[in-house]
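Researcher: Please translate sequence to structure tokens.
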Amino acid sequence: MADKAFITPKVLKWARQSAKMTEETAAAKVSVTVDKLKEWEEGVSQPTIRQAQTLAKSYKRPFALFFLPEVPRDFQPLQDFRRTGSKQLNTSSVFIIREVQQKQAWISEVYAENQEARHPFVGRFSIKADPQTVAADILTTLKLNPAAYKTGNPIKEWIDAAEKKGIFVSRTSFINSRLKLDAEELQGFAIADPYAPFVFVNSEDWNAPQLFTLVHELAHIWIAETGISNDIEPEIKNKDRLHPVELFCNEVAANALMPKAIMQRLDAVVFQHSKNVFKAAKQLGVSSFALLVRAYNLHLIPLPTYQTLKKQAEIEYAAFLKREEEKSAKNKEENKPAPIYYPTVINRNGRLFIQTVLDAFHGGHIEPTLASNLLNVQVNKFQKLEAQLYR
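Model: Translation complete:
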């Protein structure tokens, strides 16, 4: 007979509930009935060690945690700045938030113990400030000029600039092959810590919305408002459904990515057709929709022109999505390889965080197991990961 795991029932139940996992889903993970799972959670019977280990892995909790006498203190939920009526956070969102919180808590504690300097830009302003002033400060601090990007990849330039200033940036669209992130549910979040500010961006969408999300979350850092966001890109209607902090951070992002001076220098021909709008938006790293909203708000185009160009852009965007869908389906048919492992790992952890962990590992300041857990990478892959880091 398999050895039983004499776990603490209420801890087992808490672990499932905190993972936002239903009884049916959890029971299926270990091929038992819901009634049997309930028995374990009520202390009527016990799972085997193997079953408890499987549940620990599914809930993304250490196996040893199940044997604690009481429910442990967990990370506090981030403030919810999302649009009114948003979906409840599911397992994928809960897991990515917890993952980033664990990374952030570790690095913040290390920096605080080492008496590292606090970042002066965290909380430099409040929501009462002028969004244009905050945007200008972000650009100055990060040494960025939207009129003169050095490459054709603005989001990479923004991430590199943020990491150089000590802001950790993580991007992914999935937890694993079965747990995907939903951009409608969670587009990004920020942890405004003075030692280790963290920004997460859901990479499910294409680069332009990701960049707007990134800068929106940077605005959260600048006003020290930790929390999660969705439906970030600006729009003209339904503003009343947005939290005041989200409205403010959208304004900051619009001013940072599309400064008034740059917008006013745009040639009038840009607004004669959506294809011209797309070209101008691409140079700034934003979407056509974001550029049109910005132009309308700055009174560069009247409402009828905005509406016409927006309709054209929507048609072209729908065609773009169809092409991408067809391309994805074709790749599956041809068995083309999935995204490359190391770039995916680098995006999810962020270059700054990876280098920080590897430096601590090489210096003998942390154990291999902790380094592996922080990066979610096996130790024997560290050398190759580091070699890929700045390619």
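Researcher: Any highlights?
Model: The CA atoms of residues 206 and 309 lie 20 Å apart.
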